[in-house]
């Protein structure tokens, strides 16, 4: 984990080799069981990074202790939101998300990011930023994706069509 300067008054958290909990991802923004349609994904955090973020007020969640096998360490999670803006003057704040697949890099948009819900990733390098919120007497920090490189896992069939099989 590394703190990076994004602007003069905004810092982000850089997590190289991040792990995403794919079944808990909602890049498409489909309404979930709680009625939220915010695009998001869940980041699996190493214990040291989880401890540091927790100490700084980030909403890190830990695995239910009853689900942790004896002798194993619990897993730690952080929900990261992915926000695209409809207003033309706010599009400059949209996250910069890049899909690396088969040696090609594709810049993702609000229209294409939903593809991530069905993709497995070998590697993810990302930067997220804090949003300090306060509503109805409660306050906290939410993580928002600022930029990320998502490297798609190669399919078993990735080489098909590139060459003719021989017997």
Protein model, in words:
With 167 residues, the protein is mainly beta. It has one domain: OB fold (Dihydrolipoamide Acetyltransferase, E2P) (Beta Barrel). It is 5% helix and 43% strand. The chain has one helix and nine strands; from the N terminus they run βββαββββββ. A five-stranded mixed beta barrel has the order 2-3-5-9-8. A hairpin with a 2-residue loop joins strand 8 and strand 9. The longest helix has 9 residues, at 47-55. It is globular and about 45 Å long. The termini are far apart. The model has no long low-confidence stretch (mean pLDDT 88).
SSE layout and pairings?
Blueprint: E1 2-7, E2 10-20, E3 40-45, H1 47-55, E4 61-62, E5 76-81, E6 96-101, E7 104-107, E8 121-135, E9 138-152
Parallel strand pairs: 5-9, 6-9
Antiparallel strand pairs: 1-2, 2-3, 2-8, 3-5, 4-5, 6-7, 8-9
Q: How much of the sequence is in beta strands?
A: 35-45%
Largest sheet: 5 strands, mixed, barrel
Number of strands: 9
Terminal-residue CA separation: 49 Å
- Into which percent range does the helicity of residues fall? under 10%
Mean pLDDT, as a whole number? 88
Number of helices: 1
Radius of gyration: 18 Å
CATH topology: OB fold (Dihydrolipoamide Acetyltransferase, E2P)
Shape verdict: globular
Number of domains: 1
Just name the CATH architecture: Beta Barrel
Q: Pairing-aware structural class of the strands and helices?
A: mainly beta
Which consecutive residue ranges, at least 5 long each, have pLDDT under 50?
none
Q: What is the name of the CATH class?
A: Mainly Beta
What topology, given as strand order, has the largest sheet? 2-3-5-9-8
Order of SSEs? EEEHEEEEEE
